[in-house]
Amino acid sequence: QFMDLNEKRRHGTSDFPFAFYHLDYLHPRYVMNYHWHQEYELIRVLSGKLEMTLDERTTSVKPGDLVFVHGGVLHSGMPENCVYECLVFDLNVFTRHNSSSGSYIQKILDRSALVFDHFEREKFSSVIPVTDHIFEAMKKRYPGYEMMVIGELYHFFSLVFRHHLYLESVPQTRKGYRKVLQLRKVLDYIDKNYSQPITLDELAAAAS
How many helical (H) and strand (E) elements, i.e. helices and strands, does the chain have? Predict the structure, then answer.
């Protein structure tokens, strides 16, 4: 398996929990299978089109666009002649080292502030260049790039709150939320038992 359904592998290091991935058609994980992880993720499309599904919502991501994936969100991506990049990171690092910004980050962690999940380049011209700097720093890894990544992520989140680029305390519908939880349970069951025959009855029991 190239991708755990509940992705448990470490992204980055304990001191710098950020991991960068550049994906084209030669990459074994080019098609982003349905999965979830506790970390947060930024995704930018360089060329082609990426059809992203976040929980139950699907959006078409164009070159230059940015996707923000909250921790715990089921997501997948179907590329079409696409080259794209991902940055997976632990958001908790921003609450540990800077108490003045901790209250803002906590709003994202507890989902009282749901950051927009799709930033189109033409509509969010103040945000995209900031995240471009983050991806370029992760790609080139020049001396001091770690400070650039952390600093520009602070910059990104400051713009999110300054321009209210988030939704506040949006309750999920019971039906929709229940479906997502059931799907996560089923995916976890398949992940743990994929080497053995699995029956539909077993999957139904796992979802209940």
Answer: 6, 9
Looking at this protein, which amino acid is placed at residue 61?
V
Residue among 69, 72, 30, 29 at smallest CA distance from 53? 69
Residue 165 near residue 159, CB atoms below 8 Å: yes
Angle at which helices 99-109 and 145-162 pack, to 10 degrees?
70
Please report, in tens digits, the pLDDT of each residue of the chain (208 residues total): 434 444 545 555 778 999 999 999 999 999 999 898 989 999 999 999 999 999 889 999 999 999 999 998 999 999 999 999 999 999 988 887 666 788 899 999 988 999 999 999 999 999 999 999 999 999 999 999 999 999 999 999 999 999 999 999 666 544 454 555 555 555 556 556 656 787 767 667 766 6
